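Quick one, tokens below. Sequence please?
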């Protein structure tokens, strides 16, 4: 069964994306995972990730992290 990503099921993909980003951010910035998660959830990138029409959910962790870095610098 082929399942397409829609706004209604996108939430299933977000935890893994946030996990990757939080790990990378915490290691890079020498902050706790909790602080990294907070920064991600407050970011414009996360807002875009929540919107299926942006297709940001399709990007891998490195591309997403680069976009996050551009935003928080």
């Amino acid at each position: 069964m082929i399942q397409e990503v829609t706004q209604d099921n996108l939430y299933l993909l977000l935890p893994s994306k946030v996990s990757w980003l939080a790990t990378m951010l915490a290691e890079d910035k020498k902050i706790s995972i909790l602080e990294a998660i907070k920064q991600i959830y407050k970011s414009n990138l996360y807002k875009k990730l929540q919107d299926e029409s942006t297709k940001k959910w399709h990007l891998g962790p490195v591309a997403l992290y680069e976009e996050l870095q551009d935003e928080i610098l």
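The chain has one domain: 10-72. Residues 10-72 form one domain.
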